[in-house]
Amino acid sequence: MLELSDLTVAFDGTVAVDGVDLTVADGDVLAVLGPSGCGKSTLLRAIAGLEPAVGRVAWDGADLAGTPTHRRGFALMFQDGQLFDHLTVARNVGYAQRLRGGDRRAVRAEVDDLLALVGLAGYGDRLPRTLSGGERQRVALARSLAARPRLILLDEPLSALDAGLRVRLGADLRRILVEAGTTALLVTHDQDEAFAVADRVALMRAGRIVQEGPVAEVWAQPVDDEARDFLGARRSFGGPDAARILAAAGLPDEDGVTIVVRPSGSGSDSGTGTVS
Ligand SMILES: Nc1ncnc2c1ncn2[C@@H]1O[C@H](COP(=O)(O)OP(=O)(O)OP(=O)(O)O)[C@@H](O)[C@H]1O
To answer: Does residue 207 have its Cβ closer than 6 Å to ligand 1?
Structure first.
């Protein structure tokens, strides 16, 4: 379990992350959602140990202050995936295991399992430049999972993709993380990305977390007008997203349903949203 307590990062007096308290339970996928410049990437870097911070980052109760990035057992995945262009897909995915001196055949078997998990069975001998953007992101994800991280940190992993692909790959990303049983923290400014991938969402604004909870609950009951306007950019949900909302509401699933969410009131007054 990841626990952040009163985590603060300041640059020359500018506070980018301001007293953040957050917990990510084992196996959960949390999205930190907020506008550009609110401090998301800085928060992620502080968790990874790449940015000096005040406050506490702990895993299973152990403070990580003295633990360097490469010993935290966390994996980082960025927007552009950052693959090695001159290495095949299989070599990209197996890179860390090979560095650790893994047996060739065992590494290959594990790589094949991971490629199957991300829906790229048989792609092992391809070079990254022959893949689509979505396929490259899947390879990057397989490579992150290959290190068997206890936490995977994702910085806008789907933002470089076009809208249609983003929604499809978002659902896949969620399935892959759940199947791998990985605990994950994703930061994004994109409501679609947060909704498609995460179980829980934390809204971030000017360095602070202003609301945190299960995704459907946060959408239905935004904490204030600003949160409602920000979330309002995403109003309708279809396919697997609709199925998740129906399940969360205890309603039977039906094919082809589109759910329209209208946050109502200021949240702090009425606290209710409408699902129709
Ligand atoms: N190395 C740095 N030195 C000085 N200021 C920085 C540094 N890194 C980030 N900041 C500032 O901290 C604030 C938060 O930046 P951050 O990159 O964390 O935001 P973000 O929410 O990830 O934005 P985006 O979605 O645009 O990437 C910004 O005001 C930014 O200018």
So the answer is: no
Q: Which of 173-177, 228-232, 243-247 has the lowest mean pLDDT?
A: 243-247
Check residue 119 and give left, alpha or beta (phi > 0: left; psi -120 to 50: alpha): left
Beta bridge partners of 107: none
- Are the C-beta atoms of residues 135 and 92 closer than 8 Å to each other? no
What is the Å distance from ligand 1's center to 42 Cα?
6
What is the whole-number distance in angstroms between the Cα of residue 188 and the centre of ligand 1? Answer: 13
* CB 38 near ligand 1, within 6 Å: yes
CA of 170 to the centre of ligand 1 (A): 25
Residue range 198-213: average pLDDT? 96
Cβ atoms of 211 and 190 closer than 8 Å: no
ipTM score of complex: 0.94
CA 276 – CA 273 distance, rounded (Å): 10
Question: Which among 156, 185, 240, 204 is positioned nearest to 16, based on CA atoms?
Answer: 204
Ligand 1 atom index nearest CA of 188: 25
Please give the pLDDT value at position 92: 93
Which structural domains are found in the chain, ordered by start?
2-73+149-275 (3.40.50.300), 74-148 (no CATH)
- Atom in ligand 1 nearest the alpha carbon of residue 42: 18
From ligand 1's centre to the CA of 17, what distance in Å? 9
C-alpha 196: how far from chain center: 10
Q: What is the pLDDT of residues 135-186, one digit of tens each?
A: 898 899 899 888 889 999 999 888 777 777 777 788 888 888 898 889 999 9
Q: Is the CB of 276 under 6 A from ligand 1?
A: no
14 SS3 class: strand
